[in-house]
Amino acid sequence: MSDVERTEFQLPERDVVDTRLQAGEQDAETTLRPRSLDEFIGQQKVRSQLSLVLTGAKNRGVTPDHVLLSGPPGLGKTTMAMIIAQELNTNLRMTSGPALERAGDLAAMLSNLMEGDVLFIDEIHRIARPAEEMLYMAMEDFRIDVIVGKGPGATSIPLEIPPFTLVAATTRSGMLTGPLRDRFGFTAQMEFYDVTDLTRVVTRAATILGVSIDHDAAVEIASRSRGTPRIANRLLRRVRDFAEVNADGHIDMAAARGALEVFDVDEAGLDRLDRAVLSALIRGHGGGPVGVNTLAVAVGEESTTVEEVCEPYLVRAGLIARTGRGRVATAAAWHHLGLTPPDGTLGLH
């Protein structure tokens, strides 16, 4: 059986989740995932729209339209796909774009679908072109053409597929081809979370993990989570470790701040690498402009790491700006490092 055929995923019942937690939280990410639209925190507009799509399809007794979820990593796209399958009371079969290297890989996955199944393809913008072209017909007509043989003797055999719902996730919607994007009946853009919603995420996760936490400590963790629930949950687990080792296990403001300091997460949510990039840009090159390759060499990382891991948040936080000549530090970046920006610095009033 190939990698793309390992397939069926059933969401655990509540009592199974609790048993896993007691057994040692071997899969914390799974246990913290909400299992319904009502449990899902944040993304109010997406949840309302998706609820209409799913409820309307269930009332008509038909398979819902295909769903495209786009947005940065960690905002809940995979969780939303699991919830869709749960709301429809059907199976979820999971794969990813990079795993579908050939049309045959996709054909094997599609041929195993049952009527009403949800097929989730993560990072769909990385799917191979032959597989993408096969997916067009599967999405529209619920059939594919399988080529048997080679050369002049090759024969095309039509294969009917039971109606299914494709849920696709992408972090780069601009890389999707027009024909693929147009075949989705519902497209949702996942947005970054505000501190209020992230505080609810942290509080809910703490309850599931059996951790006692003060409200102000939850706010502190949420404010340093870059607007991303995945990061909030990860920081909560590290703060929990700190509180269990250095205190009585209860997370108060002192424990939260102490843990986040130990794990190099500052008040703005910047980690060691983020601050190294800012320091190289400001202290090493006077605030820029500097090319990304130069910054990468200065901090000892690959340029793709700086560009894809650090820069998105630094730009969104208003600490650096991308210009035609290179990266430039803003006045906020100078102030964040405790330095006085020179006259003419971007953002200086």
From TrEMBL:
- What reaction does this catalyse? ATP + H2O = ADP + phosphate + H(+)
Q: What residues does DNA bind to?
A: R322, R327
User: Where is each AAA+ ATPase domain found?
Assistant: 63-196
Its localization reads: Cytoplasm
The record's section on InterPro entries has: AAA+_ATPase (IPR003593), AAA_lid_4 (IPR041445), DNA_helicase_Holl-junc_RuvB (IPR004605), P-loop_NTPase (IPR027417), RuvB-like_N (IPR008824), RuvB_wg_C (IPR008823), WH-like_DNA-bd_sf (IPR036388), WH_DNA-bd_sf (IPR036390)
Q: Pfam families given for it? A: AAA_lid_4, RuvB_N, WHD_RuvB
Entry EC no(s): 3.6.4.-
Q: Identify the stretch(es) annotated as Head domain (RuvB-H).
A: 267-349
Indicate which residues the UniProt annotation says bind ATP: L32, R33, G74, K77, T78, T79, E140, D141, F142, R183, Y193, R230
Q: Which UniProt keywords apply?
A: ATP-binding, Cytoplasm, DNA damage, DNA recombination, DNA repair, DNA-binding, Helicase, Hydrolase, Nucleotide-binding
Segments carrying the region annotation (Small ATPAse domain (RuvB-S)) are 194-264
Q: What is known of its domains?
A: Has 3 domains, the large (RuvB-L) and small ATPase (RuvB-S) domains and the C-terminal head (RuvB-H) domain. The head domain binds DNA, while the ATPase domains jointly bind ATP, ADP or are empty depending on the state of the subunit in the translocation cycle. During a single DNA translocation step the structure of each domain remains the same, but their relative positions change.
State whether it acts alone or in a complex, and with which partners, per the record: Homohexamer. Forms an RuvA(8)-RuvB(12)-Holliday junction (HJ) complex. HJ DNA is sandwiched between 2 RuvA tetramers; dsDNA enters through RuvA and exits via RuvB. An RuvB hexamer assembles on each DNA strand where it exits the tetramer. Each RuvB hexamer is contacted by two RuvA subunits (via domain III) on 2 adjacent RuvB subunits; this complex drives branch migration. In the full resolvosome a probable DNA-RuvA(4)-RuvB(12)-RuvC(2) complex forms which resolves the HJ.
User: Which protein, by its recorded name, is this?
Assistant: Holliday junction branch migration complex subunit RuvB
